What does this fold into?
Amino acid sequence: MAIHKAVIPAAGLGTRFLPATKSTPKEMLPVVDKPAIQYVVEEAVAAHLNDVLFITGRSKRTLADHFDAQPELEAALEAKGDLDRLALVRESTELADVHFVRQGKPKGLGHAVLCAKHHVGDQAFAVLLGDDLIDARDPLLPAMLALQERTGGSVIALLEVEPETIHLYGCAAVEPIPGGDDADQVRVTALVEKPDAADAPSNLAIIGRYVLNPAVFAVLEETPPGRGGEIQLTDALATLATMPADEGGGVYGVVFRGRRYDTGDRLDYLKAVVKIAADREDLGPDFREWLAEYVPSLKA
It folds into this structure.
């Protein structure tokens, strides 16, 4: 069965961006002229994941508003003949079949995924985290979806990072897939959440894209709180990696070597905005020219 459902956890408080996120969800912070979350939904739709479930919390109403119709605004733009902006406003409304579920209490990523159980049912599904933006020119999800359909297990996205930064991520121990012909597709043998550098089994960090076998729900229901007192998706995946394939077990990885933008903290968010703006056809030429003049004037 083709995978067509995507789950986007969006219940976090966004404390690293206070006070901007006091009343505005961090997912709605603009990256140039679109909220970060729209890039994520566009990525899902490009991979033919047209059924999108947001896992939200309190103070996230503007998320739903963004993907809903705005009749008054649309009528005003149409009356002015501003058809270009009208198309931009309608674009987010028409992107996908969008649904929302409340998480209630923020009990971790694993709990957020578990909240999708009744919507997803017994189908494999994708999970996309809003802090990771994947450049549309370097698609990641299609390879992950194909690997899941071929193996029947769960698939995670992996990124090579500097060993001294591995403590910021979940980390995977891997081995080649028997009979596989792509070195960037691996079998995961173990997972550790935010290990110390000395204890990390590799420098392969888990980034915010997953394609999961629905067996993950039963595992999550039995997964106790882990690091930080939260239910960790990494812990559930570690269990799945030890389970037999006929029970929905097996975890695989796709090592991503394309362009990724981290919007998870303030400095990386600023870098993402600059990189994306510099690559835009409409803004890029003037923006790059200004950067070329401005950057040499800065003192380290």
